[in-house]
Structures
1.
Amino acid sequence: MIEELIDVLLLVALLLVALQVIGSRGLLAAIMTFGAFSLVCAGLFITLDAVDVAFTEAAVGAGVATLLMLAALRRCGGEPEESPRVHWGGLVTVLVLGGLLVWGIRDLPPVGLADNPAHEHVAPRYLEQSGTEIGIPNVVTSVLASYRGFDTLGEVVVIFTAGLGVWLLLSGRRPEEEE
Amino acid sequence: MSDDLILRVVSKFLIPVIVLFGLYVQFHGEYGPGGGFQAGVILGSAVILYLLVFGADAAHAVVPTRWLRWQAAAGVLLYAGTGVATVLLGGNFLDYDVLANSPVAGQHLGIILIELGVMLTVSSTIALLAMLFAESPEEP
């Protein structure tokens, strides 16, 4: 009962914040509200028992991304034209695609059942064997760091490359002041 | 950047706590939620808070961007180097079993090494991004 109440509250809050992001005038207000959107998302991830993801969402989505967008806004400056017009073609496309996605939800397996397809592939092996193979209580860490270590290496390289790209873009234009 | 006394004092108290919590998330990742990525983000946030409160010049003095660049590369190298080490020791790439005497000990060592690599790269990249954006764009 209390869990359903929290879920409904969080989802309603998510919807309200999303509408607020769309409706906010000015980019600054939109960016700040978007941070709040990420924070509500982090709460939803906690109710789904995905605490690792909630950590990341709260820190990156609500914190770092908001700051980077604010910094980009300051750097690029300016607000868009006063009242953005409604693009009917885009609105129809989004509504149709969104409707298709909602329609597709009907064919998804119910959340949390033990015999869902996602839980019958490699998950049982991780749960049963990681205790003796890896010897770490947190199965998420075992999967991310060991079983899927190659994927995680790719993620780290992506982060490094992104940082490298931003550094080359933002620091390379004053060659005479290079240390 | 900020002249607010309360903000400065509270940040001075908070930043060590944030760093400590980041290290806790890093080293407790075997037992609780967290790991290198989350720890890196939290450590990066500590640098960002310092940057926001004390300004870009002070932040540059504490963590120079040159140093951050080296740290980001060192993290990737540590991660990939662990993989290369497992290959040289006769295993598959990133198969930590061969790193120590027993497979479980090898897995522990390998995971600690690669999580350290993740933390180094993520924390320094996030701090680097914030530093680069925070630099004053007015005098190009």
2.
Amino acid sequence: MYSFNYLKPVSIEDAASMLSESDEHKVISGGMTLIPTLKQRLARVERLIGLEKCGLSEIKLDGELLKIGAMATHAEVSESDIVVMENPAIAELASHIGDRQVRNRGTIGGSLANNDPSACYPAAILALGGIIHTTKRDINAEEFFVDLFETALEEDEIITAVSLPKPDAAAYEKFPNPASRYAMVGVFVAKFNSEIRVAVTGAGEEGVFRCSEIETALLKAFSSESLSDCTISADGLMSDIHAEADYRAHLIVEMAKRAVTKSARR
Amino acid sequence: MILGEIDVTQVTLMVNGTQHNEDVSDYMLLADFIREKLKLTGTHVGCDTSQCGACVIHIDGISVKSCTMLAVQADGSNITTIEGLADGDVLHPMQQAFHENHGLQCGFCTPGMIMSAIELIDGKPDISEAEIRQGLEGNLCRCTGYQNIVKSVHEAAKVERR
């Protein structure tokens, strides 16, 4: 690891101001990706700005929306009574990220800001049509996820919370890589009144995306049988040593079927 | 205090019931702090990539991988390492269960396994074997001695039930 200084601002405004001072400054929340990256010298910073004293971990109901603070850990989200009651699919998703020790440190804000193409949260936030609150503005999920490890966040902008509407039914299903446990394909399905929204992680060459073929098929009837003849093009899907693009295309339909079935059991 | 360009920060930590005030460079890993500054070498570093779990400790009662956290981030916290579990010569019930069920072979993963397992069974005396296996997914045993590790954790949970 290259050397750096560690700062502990006590408010998010101070953190944002420290971040804006230099390109060599970086924000750290749980550090479950950033610390390994620094250890491998894949990244170098002059100053790390820790958000642990900024108080951003509250989970609450904000009118109709479930509002989760950026510093809420995966363990806190998965065990929160409010989340389990209002949006159980989010609690279940959070309970399967990484392992117990990663869930004890990793945060929702950190996961979204990193936008790993195999991360679970981006699929949920995009499928639910969430809003990402930052130190500067509110960003719709559609505009937030830009490309692999790339978001709409500006250099000196920090996520403060995420707001999620309550779906009529929702579930997430992932096919974990047998070794890394990251999603080789993860599908989040959400049903609102007359709208179906389906987002896929782990598969797209440009990161998380909405899958219109599955959304259209599920509009006829929100049941796994609606997907029995559904096929998805492998164009734009990742191929790597773990899975070819056409295998991922097949997994997307299968995970979507399982997610729909799971959502009906709630 | 400035040492060259890099800050040295004084951290105050309670480790296994003893308070420590130490100067650390900001980029020192918590696992290195525990092993090299405090000489508590029961916490192991296996993979150094946050996968194997040999470095698991408790911070304020919560299990974390100390190779993926900085010492400055633990300032002000209450830490328990494997050395803090036994009461003199009396083993912690989880250690006793590993002893009785042959839950260790080479022993390298054992400190992390035990620290993870204690959090895992807390408040769950009726935990199932499947839950134990899933709950220990962040800990790897290169001897592949999982059968007896799972058995040990199961037995320790039963002891808690009594």
